[in-house]
Amino acid sequence: MEIVGGRQYVEIRGDKTHELPPLLLRTSPGMNRVDRMFNLATSIVDSEDMVAPPQCDDPAVDRELEMRRLDLAVQLVEEYRRMVNHWKWGDSILEWIRQCEITFDGRPELRTLLRPDLWPHASRSSFVILLEDKAAADSGVDVERAVGLRLTFRQPPPISFFSDQFLFYLQSTVAATAYQKWASLSPSPVASLPPERFRFDVVNMAA
After folding, report:
1. Domain regions of the chain by residue span
2. pLDDT tens by residue, 118-176
3. Cα separation of 158 and 110, whole Å?
4. How many CB atoms lie within 10 A of CB 156?
5. pTM of the full structure
6. Is residue 23 within 8 Å of residue 92, measured between CB atoms?
7. DSSP per residue over 121-160, as a string?
8. Separation between Cα atoms, residue 90 and residue 128, nearest integer Å
């Protein structure tokens, strides 16, 4: 066991750099047409009373409120698109972890690292930490949030299923709670995988 900066790392025999399966990202948009999504977002703005009705017969006020209404709809669409992008990252990451576990099981020098009866041991969340250590995610993608959203939703629901409160404020908290609960399912102590001992490619299948 090696301890660096308060973190425990599993020990791996030798000095070989181990090749892991590629992380295959399926992040193509695959969503409703933008105009339809915008119309649904506008319906959310109206149904949630996000814009107060005008209190006077002033065309300038009406125009200002309409611009505010449309701006909120655009913001909802952008939040939804970011959420779906995170979900797709999470879906790809969980499949990558499964492939990594198969790889570990097939290599004698790595097989024991995932056994919880050994101390310390790696866990499924150790692969998420490895992604963070390797800075493998795109800019703006939080891998823990991505995994948390995938754990919460088997498929990303359409925008009309969400409230404005969820899209603007609650999704990060929900995703963080889901990830933390999932990560805590492995018995302690859990150790990290030394990033310098592993290599893998990140392949965007939509490219």
Report:
1. 26-204
2. 778 899 999 999 999 999 999 899 999 999 999 999 999 999 999 999 999 999 999 99
3. 41
4. 22
5. 0.87
6. yes
7. B--HHHHHHHHHHTT-SPTT--HHHHHHHHHH-SSPPPGG
8. 10
